[in-house]
Specification:
4 helices, seven-stranded antiparallel beta sheet, 7 strands, binds zinc ion, 193 residues, alpha+beta, Peptide Deformylase
């Protein structure tokens, strides 16, 4: 069966809090997994007006393997194409720490203003199992930190857990509005269970 938007798991599903397994050998099963991940994000994007998925980790379709896909064109001017990273690891965090807004398909309707490093060095395997190393900065660096966190069972909300000013919701008009920390966030069973 092909994955679709309903394959995407969300908090409080505890699989999102688990470390994913490394891929030992890249096989057809790995490329089938990647196909499912792509199918899920394309289906999800088609259902949303104000959001476009820039990346997905395999755990988000409940496959606990260290596989991440990242959209190649963040401005979405071309049809969606994705880069596959297998067993991605941060070799080094560099640059400054900057805050920006982040959302996650696995945390519905909550956005965060999340501090991240502006540069990262990454090592991974590509879709064919070949080792690759590269540096990324800016938005891509943020996306990679978010996705590699997923492979380690960590979510963006964990970086801002006690920050009263850092939680937002997306309105129907596509605007981010602050959430009430005491009322909506602090004791949220969905987020912190
Ligand atoms: Zn996410």
């Amino acid at each position: 069966m092909t994955a679709n938007k309903d394959s995407i798991i969300t908090l409080p599903n505890q699989h999102l809090r688990q470390r994913s397994q490394r891929i030992g050998v890249v096989t057809k099963a790995t490329s089938d997994l990647v196909k499912d991940m792509v199918a899920a994000v394309i289906d999800w994007d088609a259902s949303r007006d104000h959001e476009v998925t820039v990346a997905l980790a395999a755990v988000q379709i409940d496959q606990l393997y260290r596989v991440v896909i990242v959209r190649e064109d963040f401005n979405h001017e071309t049809p969606a194409q994705y880069t596959t990273l297998i067993n991605p690891e941060i070799v080094k965090l560099e640059g400054e720490i900057e805050r920006d807004y982040e959302g996650c398909l696995s945390i519905r309707s909550v956005y965060g203003y999340v501090p991240r490093h502006t540069k990262v060095r990454i090592k991974a395997l590509d879709a064919n199992g070949k080792p690759i190393k590269f540096s990324a900065s800016g938005f891509l660096a943020r996306v990679l930190q978010h996705e590699i966190d997923h492979t380690n069972g960590k979510l963006f909300v964990d970086h801002i857990k006690d920050d009263h000013e850092a939680f937002f919701e997306l309105t129907n008009k596509g605007k981010l509005e602050p959430l009430d920390y005491e009322k909506d966030i602090k004791n949220s069973r969905i987020l912190w269970q």
